[in-house]
Amino acid sequence: MKAQIRSKFEIEILIDTFYEKVLEHEELSRFFSSAVLNWDFHKKIFVSYWSKQILFTDTYEGSPLHRHIDVDQKFERGFTKHHFDEWARLWVETIDILFEGEKADLAKESGVNMAKNIYLKMFFNRKPKTLSI
Asked: Is the dihedral of CA 38, 11, 66, 59 positive or negative?
């Protein structure tokens, strides 16, 4: 029997395990390695965000979308749908390995939806490349 997601403690385990996988991922690691300079600081942000999404307990304020747009621009529109699909696949896989239950299902659904929404909003927010003459 797997654990239930009941508190911030389980969210921390999820975030630690998930981002270990992301940093080992051949295609995703380059984005996260260069975009996140202080993992301890960002871990707190990730835990706060997911605690709010899954447990409805935190006071996260911010916009993951804006950060992804910044990184996409830094990598000259380097994000593709495939990257977000891989992120979502790793997210669901990590949750399935560690947890079960209603909150685990909510976490999976929220993560998959977030990946889709951020990609679509980021894609439609891209500015056309200008021609140099």
From this structure: negative
The position carrying tokens 């951020």 is 118
CATH number reported for the structural domain that contains residue 51 in this entry: 1.10.490.10
Compute the average pLDDT of residues 15-29.
Answer: 94
Domain of residue 32 covers 8-125
What is the C-alpha separation between 105 and 18, in angstroms, rounded?
Answer: 16
pTM for this entry = 0.86
In a domain, 2, yes or no: no
**Interval 52-70: pLDDT, tens:** 999 999 778 887 777 767 7
**DSSP string of the chain?**
-PBP--SHHHHHHHHHHHHHHHHH-TTTHHHHHHH-S-HHHHHHHHHHHHIIIIIS-------HHHHHHHHHHHTTS---HHHHHHHHHHHHHHHHHHB-SHHHHHHHHHHHHHHHHHHHHHHHHPPPPPPP-
What is the structure's pLDDT at 78?
74
Residue bearing tokens 């984005």: 31
